[in-house]
């Protein structure tokens, strides 16, 4: 059976205030063309269909258009909600859509109920695990713990229990939206940390032939059977080196997995350039970036006058300006933001406590800070449901 694995469309998202709706429409047209050209048997969409819980009308219209075009191919689609989606909103009309071959899986209680497809070699059971916010779904799926690993393990227990009752030789596929250990993150994914720990081990998917993952925006192979498709478009300059693709997965009769990457259309290349302003304006090696979306990091010790206007004269699509002046670490003007770079919210909060009173928090205080940060994040998630 041939599967097309994609995720993280983020319909409605912009790139540094540049609208991407036309680029997203071009990607979806490319997806439909790929389904037809490569004789795909099923399309897997592993979450984050929209960029936010209440998407703009134009994004909803584009989604509706995409569903109609996919349904017209006659190829089944299995789609889950991600952490950016409102599961309840995305799941509206799931029963009716299922009759047209578009199977929405947004209810955690349905983790163990697959979409069953067949080919010449027998059945393939496709299980959709929507994004599982631990604090909101723990009791629903009878998880034995409070973190991501616990709720995902509980969902997989349901998958394995259902699979055990199916005929021998039934192949299996899971769609999940999670941060799996070994995956490389970028700047454009929303933090899903619980208790300071977000990653789950890839072994959690044991017992199934293929795990089609969403959440991380870089296409990557965790194991031969556990893969991220990545987002079809770049949503931050940290993705400048990404090759944006979908996975074309062939699932053999014995459950063996082989994969091929299908490139997605690129609306405009990304470039990150760094140096003093005059150097960036004069360096002939940068000619190749003049048509790219550009993030310029200026290292001038003193902020130059009107830097964006001057950069735009050479790089008309410059979108982001970062100031990172060349200064000694002990210089009092050194950027506070530089000192915070790469640190989590919890680490920043703990450092603030140490700065204010001269010593860092003890174990009980660290637990209290972690609980407070998790409470805020969960409250935000509840507001989006």
3D architecture notes:
The structure is a single chain. With 385 residues, this protein is an alpha/beta fold. The protein has two domains: 2-263, Purple Acid Phosphatase, chain A, domain 2; 270-326, no CATH class. Helix content is 31%, strand content 22%. It contains eleven helices and 17 strands. Strands 6-5-4-1-13-14 form a six-stranded mixed β-sheet. Helix 7 links the parallel strand 15 and strand 16. Helix 10 crosses helix 11. The longest helix is centred in the C-terminal third of the chain and has 22 residues, at 363-384. The two termini are 34 Å apart. The mean pLDDT is 92. Keywords: DNA recombination, DNA replication, Endonuclease, Exonuclease, Hydrolase, Nuclease. InterPro entries: Calcineurin-like_PHP, DNA_Repair-Maintenance_Comp, Metallo-depent_PP-like, Mre11_N, SbcD, SbcD_C. It comes from Streptomyces mobaraensis. Residues 267-355 form the Nuclease SbcCD subunit D C-terminal domain. Belongs to the SbcD family.
């Amino acid at each position: 059976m041939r599967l097309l694995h994609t995720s993280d469309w983020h319909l409605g998202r912009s790139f540094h205030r540049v609208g991407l709706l036309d680029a997203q429409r071009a990607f979806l047209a490319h997806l439909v063309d790929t389904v037809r050209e490569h004789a795909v048997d099923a399309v897997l969409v592993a979450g984050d269909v929209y960029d936010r819980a209440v998407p703009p009308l134009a994004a909803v219209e584009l989604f509706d258009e995409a569903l109609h075009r996919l349904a017209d191919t006659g190829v089944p689609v299995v789609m889950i909600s991600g952490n950016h989606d409102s599961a309840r909103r995305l799941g509206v009309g799931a029963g009716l859509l299922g009759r047209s071959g578009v199977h929405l899986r947004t209810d955690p209680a349905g983790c163990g109920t697959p979409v069953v497809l067949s080919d010449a070699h027998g059945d393939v059971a496709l299980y959709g695990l929507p994004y599982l916010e631990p604090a909101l779904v723990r009791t629903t799926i009878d998880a034995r713990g409070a973190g991501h690993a616990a709720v995902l393990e509980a969902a997989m227990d349901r998958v394995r229990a259902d699979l055990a009752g199916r005929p021998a030789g039934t192949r299996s596929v899971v769609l999940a939206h999670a941060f799996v250990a070994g995956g490389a993150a970028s700047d454009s994914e929303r933090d899903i940390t619980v208790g300071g720990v977000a990653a789950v081990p890839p072994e959690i998917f044991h017992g199934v032939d293929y795990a089609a993952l969403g959440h991380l925006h870089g296409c990557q192979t965790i194991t031969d059977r556990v893969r991220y498709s990545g987002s079809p478009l770049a949503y931050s300059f940290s993705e400048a080196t990404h090759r944006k693709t979908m996975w074309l997965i062939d699932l053999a009769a014995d459950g063996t997995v082989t994969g091929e990457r299908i490139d997605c259309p690129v609306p405009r290349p990304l470039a990150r350039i760094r140096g003093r302003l005059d150097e960036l304006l004069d360096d002939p090696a940068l000619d190749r970036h003049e048509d790219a979306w550009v993030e310029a990091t200026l290292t001038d010790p003193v902020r130059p006058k009107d830097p964006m206007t001057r950069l735009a004269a050479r790089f008309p699509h410059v979108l982001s300006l970062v100031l990172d002046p060349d200064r000694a670490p002990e210089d009092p003007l050194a950027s506070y933001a530089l000192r915070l770079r790469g640190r989590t919210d919890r680490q920043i909060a703990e450092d603030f406590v140490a700065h204010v009173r001269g010593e860092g928090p003890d174990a009980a205080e660290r637990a209290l800070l972690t609980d407070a940060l998790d409470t805020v994040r969960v409250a935000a998630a509840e507001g989006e449901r």
